[in-house]
Amino acid sequence: MEQEVFEKLVEKCAYLWGVDAETITTDTTFEEHGTKSVQISQMTTFLEDEFDCEVNYMQFKRNKTLGEAAAFVAGLLDE
Predict the structure, then answer these.
(1) Are 69 and 24 a contacting pair, CB within 8 Å?
(2) Which residues on neighbouring strands pair with residue 29, listed in sequence order?
(3) For position 78, what pLDDT does the model report?
(4) Backbone angles phi, psi at 78, to 5 degrees
(5) Does the pLDDT at position 79 exceed 80?
(6) For residue 30, which of 7, 25, 35, 45 is within the disulfide window of CB 3.0 to 4.6 Å?
(7) Does pLDDT of 62 surpass 90?
(8) Residue 34: left (phi > 0), alpha (psi -120 to 50), or beta?
(9) How many alpha carbons fall within 13 Å on the CB side of residue 38?
(10) Segment 49-75 mean pLDDT
């Protein structure tokens, strides 16, 4: 499930950041792309819609890398 979440997150981040999805890895940080709060909000809303779950904005924002964020969301889906 974590890989599926990561792939969806890459899809959204590539769009929001205007970069090629191939350049995004699990070690890619939100900070290196200057991710704004509104973009984090768009990511959480996107993931909520994709996986029919609730993703807490503040908890999601605490993740430093996309890999950590994917693991966090996958953990929510296992509950």
Answers:
(1) no
(2) 65
(3) 84
(4) -80, -15
(5) no
(6) 35
(7) yes
(8) left
(9) 2
(10) 97
**What's the CA gap between 74 and 60, in Å, rounded?**
12
- Which helix H or strand E contains 53, and what residues bound it? none
Q: Rounded CA gap, 22 and 73, in Å? A: 21
Nearest to 49 by CA among 71, 73, 29, 72: 73
Q: Tokens 């939100």 sit at which residue?
A: 30
Type of residue found at 42: Q
* pLDDT tens, position by position, 4-51: 999 999 999 999 999 999 999 999 999 999 999 999 999 999 999 999
In this prediction, residues 58-69 reach a mean pLDDT of 97
CB 1 within 8 A of CB 74: yes
Find out whether 29 and 17 touch, Cβ atoms under 8 Å: no
d(CA 47, CA 76): 11
